[in-house]
UniProtKB/TrEMBL annotation, chain A:
Domain TrmE-type G per the UniProt entry, residue ranges: 220-379
Molecular function GO labels: GTP binding; GTPase activity; identical protein binding; metal ion binding
Enzyme class: hydrolase
Name of the protein: tRNA modification GTPase MnmE
UniProt superkingdom: Bacteria
Protein family membership: Belongs to the TRAFAC class TrmE-Era-EngA-EngB-Septin-like GTPase superfamily. TrmE GTPase family.
Automatic annotation (TrEMBL), chain B:
Subunit organization: Homodimer. Heterotetramer of two MnmE and two MnmG subunits.
Gene source species: Cohnella nanjingensis
Protein name: tRNA uridine 5-carboxymethylaminomethyl modification enzyme MnmG
Role: NAD-binding protein involved in the addition of a carboxymethylaminomethyl (cmnm) group at the wobble position (U34) of certain tRNAs, forming tRNA-cmnm(5)s(2)U34.
Entry's Gene Ontology BP terms: tRNA methylation; tRNA wobble uridine modification
Keyword Chloroplast in record: no
């Protein structure tokens, strides 16, 4: 009966140098293979071999992490099933993103103690250890239960509960139409279903965005400062660093050959790329142009394009303005303390006012405006870190994604004229996924809803 | 004064909808069967609404028929109106509903029973179970007759310590002023069964000639009705159906009820039994849904040769004088004559978690219960359990393993699993929303789901089975043919597509792909490419449904397969939960009480967590390894 494929982080979560995500089940190899970019194809790899490569999200091509992948075919594995172990760089972020990717691609999150349970059920663990296996399941699930209960009482549950109520009301209405067809309750139309599901979908998507925002808050926004030499990149860097004296740290890059620095801009951590490069160029030769910065551009979430307001636009700068206009770019007009000679309309033609900031890096003015512009770009205006619920748990994110997919299916089905009792399947799935987040089960509560909301009877 | 009155294989107590099905199948399976009932004039009596079917309930009737039971055939012989409900929705929830000629329904069922081989019907009130060493061996009646049997099926309906309540008036009674069964209830307690008190109710009946139908809306039957039984090809009443009529309560109705609430037993505390939420009395509806200005009232004929009308929507236990006032406040009923007064009835039921999924009780072996005694409500629910209890009582008498329908096979399975696994704290009614595989449990495919089983256990004749196999193979062949048939973007095809309001073809497609377009039906394709072999309307419908909803059907089938593995993982009946280390206390208690037969069933017990299931699995694995070691050693 253990025929689905499960995954979980097998090492203690924390800041260890390596973390292992274990995948077990008949499809373990087939599930991981398309997500793993390497010279080797896992599907044909011999058992008990290790492969070097990258975990890549096939939908967007995004590289998540540099990893080592071990393939162990059953029965010669811990669980006696096919097992793939992915060793990622330690730290919660890299490991969670790998796990999230697996869950999105149809692998199930392992229950507490499930690997050990499978190992036992498949005969890998001695009978004498059965009690130890049970203790493990019990203690792990108790812990998971405590965590879940904390979350259920917490902010996330306050977000999820109203969405669940919206869906259950809709479900109850659909069920009444089906089970009491002659009753004088208005029929739920495709339009009603579409509207209700779209409302919930918008909220689920918002929560998923907070997951993203939470990730940004943990990881920082990967930021590239670009511009011609002498435009003021280094002064901007220094101005930012001045604001954040205590937080400047050097993190040796793990996958890149670039030095990063990290600063916090009104609560938003920015990971500045190639700061060494910027410093070098400003200190030494002026000849090195935008080329060096360009390398960092492709990896950046945020680009700060620094222009010297005191000089007319250079051809390189025109090119950058055009190239970067569709990305998350903020144009920083430096040297406002000097006379403006730059053709401003060239900039405003391509960038809206909230993406243009004037500063004087030397005098340290305008940094506040820059903060506001960044915050608006990433958080749609106000940054609410104090009271926003960030969905950070991998299981929750995967359940929210499930719920989102089901709601989208329901909306499509409603538009395609599919009968309500079939759309109900999708709505119920969306509702169940939300219910799993807060730990409720289906069943009686739907009937409660039906009989408390509708006056039925013979 | 006692005497040995007879020995049988199976005794069925009660001849309501559960008892009739139980007795008929037991006899048809070759068991010498006795059907014992308090009053022979009450066989298959409908004490409440004069109708059979509707969503989920109608599905059950189809399932009973697919298994070889009687309810479908009997209603097809005796309906006065037939309607397919939910036709605007998907095929899974299409539901047939018949208005019955109540009296004819009884007569036809009694006639069928009287003609049945191996079946003896006798009037008598069972008062005591004969139980020896935890095994039920028979019953003793009020007259001292001792009937012995290998198995006994109890279907006591609302007779068990029944009490009728009408306003301030209360008296011991079965339904419709029948004698209640009082002593048997005591006997059930003595053998160790835990009983609960439930309540249900029925509305008043009125005289047709005193109804002003001009103030109501007509509700006719279908022009070309479908039938419940797969064996019914034609029923002559189809051309002479009687309508029902729709009216509404008025402001005055609500006023009268509100003014008399102090006399309503529902609110005065006189009723101790739990009533069903889905079937509230009118006073309950008006209190709980005070903002609803009016409620629907359907007027339904009780038969062809009677003037009695059933007032659906007006179930009540108000005093008789208030009932009359209420009736006369309803448009169309201003001058109505009330023929029977509505009433509430309380009765004893067995807590159904005391049953195995075979419907045999856990404390007393060879004793089965079915119908309202198990906490359900409704004729169809009763009949659905009746047929299963009858089958399993006969099989037990013959030394065979029980037959259990699982949740993916039928509403009967959903209902029984709900009852024995979760129990119920109100009279249980089937709803389509209780089924997790609603799309698989369709009205149209009951035969595909259950007729092979019916044949296997000897209830479906070889002849009928052959017809079923023929239908199945014709449907499969036609689906295969459509898969192979290419439709090209030629003039005839494009014209048909334009006519049905769907996009023209760019390239040729196969018939299956084309039929999945929402605008198209099998009839459209048939015009262009008729089947080379004869297909009945039923078969064409089957082809269309199976093709159109493949995607959704496949999804549910996969779910069934996944969960099926849990159902197949059996738990031995001698398992001792008290020695399983690590189970949470709540899970341990619940598991010990319900004693699930499989991990699947265990997973549906509330309070049993996935961790408990894992622990149970680990325990079962150790248990079997120890067993294996012992056997080999």
């Amino acid at each position: 009966m253990n025929e689905d494929t499960i995954a979980a982080v097998a090492t203690a979560l924390g800041e260890g140098s390596i973390a292992v995500v274990r995948v077990s089940g008949p499809d373990a190899i087939e599930r991981v293979a398309p997500l793993f970019k390497s010279k080797a194809d896992l599907r044909t790899a011999p058992t008990h071999t290790v492969h070097y490569g990258w975990m890549v999200d096939p939908s967007g091509g995004e590289v998540l992490d540099e990893v080592l992948v071990t393939v162990m075919k059953g029965p010669r594995s811990f669980t006696a099933e096919n097992v793939v172990e992915i060793s990622a760089h330690g730290g919660i972020v890299a490991v969670q993103s790998v796990l999230e990717l697996l869950l999105r691609s149809g692998v199930r999150m392992a229950e507490p103690g499930e690997f050990t349970k499978r190992a036992f059920l498949n005969g890998r663990i001695d009978l004498a250890q059965a009690e130890a296996v049970i203790d493990l399941i019990r203690s792990k699930s108790n812990k998971a239960f405590q965590v879940a209960r904390k979350q259920a009482e917490g902010a996330l549950s306050k977000e999820i509960t109203p969405l669940k109520s919206q869906l259950i009301e809709l479900l109850a209405h659909v069920e009444v139409n089906i089970d009491y067809p002659e009753h004088d309750v208005a029929e739920v139309t495709a339009g009603v279903i579409r509207d209700a599901c779209s409302q919930v979908l918008a909220q689920v998507e918002r929560l998923l965005r907070t997951a993203n925002e939470g990730k940004i808050l943990r990881e920082g926004i990967v930021t590239a400062i670009v511009g011609r030499p002498n435009a003021g990149k280094s002064s901007l860097l220094n101005a930012l660093a001045r604001e954040n004296k205590a937080i400047v740290t050097d993190i040796p890059g793990t996958t890149r050959d670039i030095v990063e620095e990290s600063v916090t801009l009104s609560g938003i951590p920015l990971r500045l790329l190639d700061t060494a490069g910027i410093r070098e160029t400003s200190d030494v030769v002026e000849r090195i142009g935008v080329e060096r910065s360009r390398g960092a551009l492709s990896d950046a979430d945020l680009i700060l394009l620094v222009l010297n307001r005191h000089e007319p636009l250079h051809e390189d700068e025109r090119q950058l303005l055009e190239e970067l206009q569709d990305r998350s770019t903020i144009v920083v007009l430096n040297k406002t303390d000097l006379e403006g000679r730059l053709e401003l309309d060239e900039v405003t033609r391509r960038y809206s006012a909230d993406r243009i900031v004037s500063i004087s890096a030397r005098e340290g003015t305008g940094i506040d405006e820059l903060e506001k512009a960044v915050s608006k770009l990433f958080f749609g205006g106000a940054i609410e870190s104090a009271d926003l619920t960030y969905v950070s748990n991998v299981r929750h994110i995967s359940l929210l994604h499930q719920s989102k997919r089901s709601l989208e299916d329901a909306i499509t089905a409603a538009s395609d004229g599919i009968p309500v009792d079939l759309i109900q399947i999708d709505i119920a799935a969306a509702w169940e996924a939300l219910g799993e987040i807060v730990g409720d089960s289906v069943g009686e509560s739907l009937l409660d809803q039906i009989f408390s909301k509708f006056c039925l009877g013979k | 004064m006692g005497y040995l009155a007879g020995e049988y294989d199976v005794i069925v107590i009660g001849a309501g909808h559960a008892g009739c099905e139980a007795a008929l199948v037991a006899a048809r399976m070759g068991s010498e069967t006795l059907l014992l009932t308090i009053n022979l004039d009450m066989v298959a009596f409908m004490p409440c609404n004069p109708s059979v079917g509707g969503p989920a309930k109608g599905h059950v009737v189809r399932e009973i028929d697919a298994l070889g039971g009687e309810m479908g055939r009997n209603i097809d012989k005796t309906f006065i109106q037939m309607r397919m409900l939910n036709t605007g929705k998907g095929p899974a929830v299409h539901a047939l509903r018949a208005q019955a000629d109540k009296f004819l329904y009884q007569h036809k069922m009694k006639e069928t029973i009287e003609k049945q081989d191996h079946l003896t019907m006798r009037q008598g009130m069972a008062e005591e179970l004969i139980v020896e060493d935890g095994v039920c061996r028979g019953v003793i009646t009020k007259t001292g007759a001792e009937y012995r049997a290998k198995t006994v099926v109890l279907t006591t309906g609302t007779y068990l310590r029944g009490k009728v309540i009408m306003g301030e008036l209360m008296y011991e009674s079965g339904p419709n002023n029948q004698q209640p069964s009082v002593k048997l209830s005591e006997s059930l307690r003595q053998v160790g069964l835990q009983l609960v008190r439930f309540k249900t109710g029925t509305p008043p009946r009125v005289h047709q000639d005193t109804i002003d139908f001009s103030k109501t809306e007509i509700q006719p039957g279908d022009d070309k009705p479908k039938y419940f039984s797969y064996e019914t090809e034609y029923a002559e009443q189809a051309n002479d159906q009687l309508p029902c009529w729709l009216t509404y309560t008025s402001e005055e109705t609500h006023q009268i009820i509100n003014d008399n609430l102090h006399r309503a037993p529902m609110f005065s505390g006189a009723i101790e039994g739990t009533g069903p939420r889905y079937c509230p009395s009118i006073e309950d509806k008006i209190v709980r849904f005070a903002d609803k200005p009016k409620h629907q009232i359907f007027l339904e004929p009780e038969g062809r040769n009677t003037k009695e009308y059933y007032v659906q929507g007006l179930s009540t236990s108000m005093p008789e004088d208030v009932q009359l006032q209420i009736l006369r406040s309803i448009p169309g009923l201003e001058k109505v004559e009330m023929m029977r007064t509505g009433y509430a009835i309380e009765y004893d039921a067995v807590v159904p978690t005391q049953l195995w999924p075979s419907l045999e009780t856990k404390v007393v072996s060879h004793l089965f219960t079915a119908g309202q005694i198990n906490g359900t409500s409704g004729y169809e629910e009763a009949a659905g359990q009746g047929i299963m209890a009858g089958i399993n009582a006969a099989r037990k008498a013959q030394g065979l393993e029980p037959v259990i329908i699982d949740r993916s096979q039928g509403y009967i399975g959903v209902m029984i699993d709900d009852l024995v696994t979760k129990g119920t704290n109100e009279p249980y009614r089937l709803l389509t929303s209780r089924a997790e595989y609603r799309l698989l449990l369709r009205h149209d495919n009951a035969d595909l789901r259950l007729t092979p089983l019916g044949h296997e256990i000897g209830l479906i004749s070889d002849d009928r089975h052959a017809r079923f196999l023929d239908k199945k193979s014709r449907v499969e062949a036609e689906i295969a043919r459509l898969k192979e048939t290419r439709f090209k973007p030629d003039e005839a095809v494009q014209a048909m597509l334009a006519e049905s309001g769907t996009a023209p073809l760019q390239n040729s497609v196969d018939g299956v792909t084309l039929l999945r377009r929402p605008e198209l039906t099998y009839a459209h394709l048939e015009r262009l490419s008729p089947s080379p072999v004869d297909l009945t309307e039923d078969m064409k419908e089957q082809v269309e449904i199976q093709i159109k909803y493949t995607g959704y059907i496949e999804k549910q089938l996969q779910q069934v397969e996944r969960l099926g593995k849990m159902e197949k993982k059996k738990i031995p009946d001698d398992i001792d939960y008290s020695i399983i280390h690590g189970l949470a206390t709540e899970a341990r208690q619940k598991l010990d009480k319900i004693r699930p037969l499989s991990i699947g069933q265990a997973s549906r017990i509330s309070g049993v967590t996935p961790a408990d299931l894992s622990i149970l699995l680990v325990h079962l694995e150790s248990y079997s390894r120890v067993g294996a070691a012992r056997n080999s050693g």
